[in-house]
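USER: Note each token:
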Amino acid sequence: MGAFVISKRYNDEYKFVFTSRKGKVVFTSLSYELKFECEEDIEKFKATIETADFLKFKSSSGKFYFKLMMEGNHFATSRKYTTSLRLQKGIDEIVRYGSSSEVLDFSGNDFIFSD
């Protein structure tokens, strides 16, 4: 099962990543000014994952990635994959485990684990 991991960016804004069962980052969210906005979007995503759209792209260097769209808005961007098959496996993992994944909060000094 994967996990949503909340952390802070260097500019003190919040973000989250979805990590695979093996601990690799699958996608990274956009930035959030407030942590509760980040937490709300994770819960909204988990509840409506079946409506997500995955727009697939190929970079100029030949790597594959996707943009995760929710309700027509850009929600997150994936890591770069070497093949389209690996890209699809990343998407499949999100669809399979995203709604039941735990949320880990590494944004402060105290680490908070929640379901």
User: Anything to note?
Assistant: The radius of gyration is 14 Å. The first strand starts at residue 3 and ends at 8. Residues 111-115 have pLDDT under 50 and may be disordered.
